[in-house]
Amino acid sequence: MLHETTFNATLARAINNIVIISANNMADDESNQRRKVKFLQILLLMDSFEEEDVLRSRERVIWTRSWIRRREERGAYHQLIRELAVEDAPAFTRYFRMDKEKFNDLVGRISIHVHRQDTIMREAISPGERLAVTLRYLFDLLVV
């Protein structure tokens, strides 16, 4: 990568060459031709360095926040709901207003309609997790 001071010095030499070429206004002899070729090479080189700097300076876009990526280890669905289903069936029934067999049956029925494909950028939210969030949202609306 070309440093800014080197870049400025190269640009100054290129501008100086332009001034010399235009001030002399000589016939196109061999040394003048070499200066023009050198000048064009410098311009092309500077242009390529500018493009590299632009590409390198572009910041990465975060598609998924780090706390969202940890939802499999710390999220409510992956922790609380699964623990309730295994350890405390009555609490699961109170939480979703249905037992875990009905919940799993409902997930099976709707999964073909709400299933999303995983991408390179992030994992899709599972149908069970989508259903759990939707049910809790709807039950909270009913209670209010």
N-C termini distance: 61 Å
Shape type: rod-shaped
What pattern of helices and strands is seen along the backbone? Answer: HHHHHHHH
Give the overall average pLDDT. Answer: 76
Instruction: Determine the number of helices (DSSP H or I, runs of at least 4 residues).
Output: 8
Number of strands: 0
> What fraction strand?
under 5%
Given helix and strand content, the structural type is mainly alpha
Largest sheet: none
Helix content: over 70%
* Parts with pLDDT < 50 across at least 5 consecutive residues: none
How many domains comprise the coordinates? 2
Rg (C-alpha, Å) = 33 Å
Give a short summary of the structure.
The chain is an all-alpha fold. 76% of the residues lie in helices and 0% in strands.
Give the SSE map:
Blueprint: H1 4-24, H2 30-57, H3 66-69, H4 71-74, H5 76-87, H6 89-96, H7 100-114, H8 127-143
How would you characterize the overall build of this protein?
It is a single chain. The chain is mainly alpha-helical. It folds into 2 domains: 54 residues; 78 residues, no CATH class. Helix content is 76%, strand content 0%. The protein contains 8 helices and no strands. It is rod-shaped. The mean pLDDT is 76.
Keywords:
single chain, 144 residues, mainly alpha, 76% helix
